[in-house]
Amino acid sequence: MSNKSARNEWKLNGQSPSGELNSTTRFYSAHSMSHYAIYWWWPGTSENDSPSELLEIFDISTPSLYRPSEAPSESSNTGYTTNGPTAFKQLLNQEFEFYDIRQGSTPNLRQLEVDENHVYFVEEDHRWLIGSQASQALPTLHKVKSTGIPFAIGPRWADECGADGDLYRSFCERTISRRAYMPVSR
């Protein structure tokens, strides 16, 4: 049954470098009224390969009549002037390194957020994590880091808190959730 109230619908690629999605593939997504962001993470295809990462940000502010669920073949799309939202920004492995958010073989990404101008990577690491999401170098206590990446050109900002070795301050001192602009030079 189709949802006629949807503003946009489009197909997400999500193809790993090996060409398949499996139980080790991870993705996070978030949206606002005007933007949709999706982050993909795939493990390396061999023990010597590093994981692959992709972030795509879409402008969804303008409604589109295109519905791939109603016209799944490309030949059926001839009546539409657009095929739905298109990605206006993509980040790959190298860009993640530049922003210091490369997840590596043990991702600690916990949340993706979007506002009108940024996508935010919220990372969390603590020594009680177990399994594939546990860091290989566990922090002393608890660590949370949020990195904002602008949609356009501009500096990233980062906010980080955690004990990280200070046994007398095992939790962050912040009492409310807030984002303060903290540019980081690169």
**N-to-C series of helices and strands:** EEEEHEEEE
- Summarize the biggest pleated sheet: 4 strands, antiparallel
Q: Name the structural class.
A: mainly beta
Number of helices: 1
Total beta-strand segments = 8
Share of residues in helices: under 10%
Instruction: Detail the poorly predicted runs.
Output: 75-81, 175-182
Strand content: 25-35%
The strand line-up of the biggest sheet is: 1-2-3-4
Number of domains: 1
Spatial separation of the terminal alpha carbons: 49 Å
Q: How much is the average pLDDT? A: 74
Which value, in Å, is the CA radius of gyration? 19 Å
Structure, described:
It is a single chain. This protein has one helix and eight strands. The chain has a four-stranded antiparallel β-sheet. It has a four-stranded antiparallel β-sheet with strand order 5-6-7-8, with no helix packed on it. It has one helix at 93-98, and strands spanning 26-31, 35-42, 52-59, 87-91, 109-114, 118-126, 142-150, 157-162. The chain is mainly beta and 186 residues long.
